[in-house]
Write a structure and sequence with these properties.
Elements lengths: L1 E7 L5 H14 L5 E6 L10 H15 L6 E11 L2 H13 L4 E6 L7 H6 L2 E4 L7 H19 L7
Parallel strand pairs: 1-2, 1-4, 3-4, 3-5
Helix pairs in contact: 1-5, 3-5
């Protein structure tokens, strides 16, 4: 299995980017992990957000691969899991016939309805709102934490 993290737009804060790279590097010890950046659209005046989300969705869907791949979308409307539950989800996927897991983290406007509907699983980080850069770092850390849980390593206490 491979993990593909899809980020809409570049990570703005260098310190956050460094943190993401650190966790992705650690994740690569467990399974191949890649980051894909999708061009973000400029944020339009109110009422035009859906057109932006549709364009970003098209770019994301062009990346996603085969039939055995799983699509996980991170969205505020998603299901809340704790770290142990998230690890169990990933363990089931890695023990199955999943070729790749695509994890989509949207930009400032979030994720289109089409992506949420197409996803195999929609997850939420919290009831709180986070900057999308910080959400990327949290997802990367939780992925690393999940694989240490799966392997019974002491990172998760």
């Amino acid at each position: 299995m491979q993990i593909h993290l899809v980020f809409v737009g570049k990570t703005v804060f260098p310190d956050v980017e460094t943190g993401i790279e650190r966790y992705v590097s650690r994740l690569n010890h467990y399974l191949p992990t890649r980051i894909h950046y999708v061009k973000a659209e400029k944020i339009p005046p109110r009422g035009m957000e859906s057109a932006v989300l549709e364009k970003e969705c098209e770019r994301i869907l062009k990346l996603i691969g085969g039939k055995s791949d799983q699509l996980i979308v991170w969205d505020r409307t998603g299901k809340h899991l704790d770290s142990l539950e998230f690890a169990r989800v990933l363990e089931r996927l890695s023990n199955g016939s999943t070729g790749a897991v695509w994890m989509i983290i949207g930009g400032p406007l979030g994720i289109s309805r089409e992506l949420r509907d197409r996803a195999n699983l929609v997850l939420a980080l919290s009831e709180m709102t986070f900057p999308h850069d910080l959400a990327r770092l949290i997802v990367a850390e939780q992925l690393y934490r999940a694989f240490t849980i799966i392997r019974g390593e002491p990172y998760h206490k």
